[in-house]
Design a protein that fits this description.
By secondary structure, this protein is of the alpha/beta class. It has one domain (24-129): Transcription Regulator spoIIAA (2-Layer Sandwich), CATH 3.30.750. Helix content is 37%, strand content 31%. The strands form two sheets. The protein has a seven-stranded mixed β-sheet, sandwiched between helices. The protein has a two-stranded parallel sheet with strand order 5-7. The radius of gyration is 14 Å and the shape is globular.
Length: 131
C-alpha cells in the first residue's frame, strides 16, 4: 500500500518522492528496480497533485542497475509531460548508465530540457538556472 504524508510519497516498489522546493519534485529510484509504465504514471500523478497549477522541475536520483520498460522510457520523453514539466535532471551513480541515458536523450530528443549528472548539487544548480 502506498502512503502519502503532506509532500512526501513512497510507492510500493520503494520509489520515494517529495517536493523539495516550491517548483522542484525530487524522486529516488532504488537499486535494481525495473521501472514499469504503471510506476511512472503513478509518480506522474503524484507530481501533478503537488503542482496542480504550474509547471515543475524534476530531479530524478537513480541508483545502480535501474531498468525502465520501453513504454516507461517513451512516456518520459513524450509530449504530455511537457505540459507540466519545465526541466528534468537525472542524477545517475553509474558511469555506464549515465552514458546510456545521454545516448538515449540524444536519440529521442525530449521536448523537456533534460540533462544527466553524477552530482546532485550540480543537478540542482542546473535546475535552479532554468526559468
Amino acid at each position: 500500500m502506498k502512503s502519502m504524508v503532506t509532500n512526501k510519497f513512497e510507492l510500493l516498489c520503494g520509489i520515494k518522492a517529495e517536493k523539495i522546493e516550491p517548483d522542484i519534485l525530487r524522486y529516488e529510484i532504488p537499486k535494481d528496480l525495473h521501472i514499469s509504465l504503471a510506476v511512472i504514471k503513478e509518480l506522474w500523478e503524484f507530481g501533478n497533485s503537488l503542482f496542480p497549477d504550474k509547471k515543475r522541475k524534476v530531479l530524478g536520483i537513480f541508483n545502480s542497475n535501474f531498468t525502465p520498460s520501453r513504454e516507461a522510457a517513451d512516456f518520459m520523453v513524450g509530449l504530455k509531460r511537457s505540459e507540466k514539466i519545465a526541466a528534468e535532471a537525472f542524477c545517475i551513480d553509474s558511469g555506464v548508465l549515465r552514458l546510456m541515458t545521454n545516448f538515449y536523450l540524444k536519440v529521442k530528443k525530449p521536448i523537456i530540457p533534460s540533462k544527466v549528472f553524477e552530482d546532485e548539487k550540480k543537478a540542482m544548480a542546473w535546475l535552479n538556472s532554468i526559468e
